[in-house]
Amino acid sequence: MLSPEVAAPPLLHPERDELELPAVLHALSDPVRLRILADLASGEERSCKSFDLPVVKSTCTHHFRVLREAGVIRQRLEGTTRLNSLRREDLDARFPGLVDAVLGAPAL
Amino acid sequence: MLSPEVAAPPLLHPERDELELPAVLHALSDPVRLRILADLASGEERSCKSFDLPVVKSTCTHHFRVLREAGVIRQRLEGTTRLNSLRREDLDARFPGLVDAVLGAPAL
DNA sequence: CAAAACGTTCGATGACCGTCGTACAATTAG
DNA sequence: CTAATTGTACGACGGTCATCGAACGTTTTG
Q: DSSP string spanning B60-106?
């Protein structure tokens, strides 16, 4: 109806040098989000639905947004799905060893 | 007045194999607590008061407790002071590389 | 076009968090 | 003994968080 020129800036991703350690650690301090991290560690792009998480859809949306806004994952639109991937290069560049340490933790 | 035999179990410290990754990451997701970690990285034992933190005493108590209960630091009573030290061996044993990665992060 | 699939948005709820100030307890110093 | 030092305990406050359910939008499928 109005302003079609400012259509949609939907997916906010911080730049690599904007990644903040407290925000990243907070994003990873939730068991559901740790599981998402572990599932993305292979490097694959995966849709939200392909994760078998113990929460309802809208809560998933919340967790993926927290991870994206902290710069942990990247979200890309593909049709009706969001493809999620780990921003491993950016994380490794800014916080060397952090992702490896988290992924190597017991009982993940 | 009663039961002097169960006098005081004051300082709770989780065992090494009880350290939980979400709890540790949450403990480290606060800037004040990250600063405490960085200040303890030398291995010294330091009193709470020796930290120059931008919060009042009771808030310091809170932050040191969060770190202790997550297993990040050890607190020992010495007279009227609490001596704090990093549980680096336990952390390194259970989450190899994690402390190093956090301490190596930029803008700490 | 209609229905299904995939996610988002919004509002609500109950829990927790970081902060402070005051009061208190314990030890040490005068 | 008194006063100072060091830290805790408690209550309050505003903010954020994780969760859900219901409604909606967009894209694919029938």
A: HHHHHHHHHHHTSEEEEEETTEEEEEE-HHHHHHHSTTHHHHHHTST
How far is residue A20's CA from residue B74's CA, in Å, rounded to a whole number?
27
pLDDT in tens, A22-56: 999 999 999 999 999 999 999 999 999 999 999 99
The answer to whether B59 CB is within 7 Å of strand C is yes
- Residue B83 half-sphere exposure toward CB, CA atoms < 13 A: 7
Tokens linked to A37: 């991290």
Q: Which residue of B has its CA nearest to A102?
A: B98
Token pair, residue B12, equals 């709770």
Whether pTM > 0.90 for this model: the answer is: yes
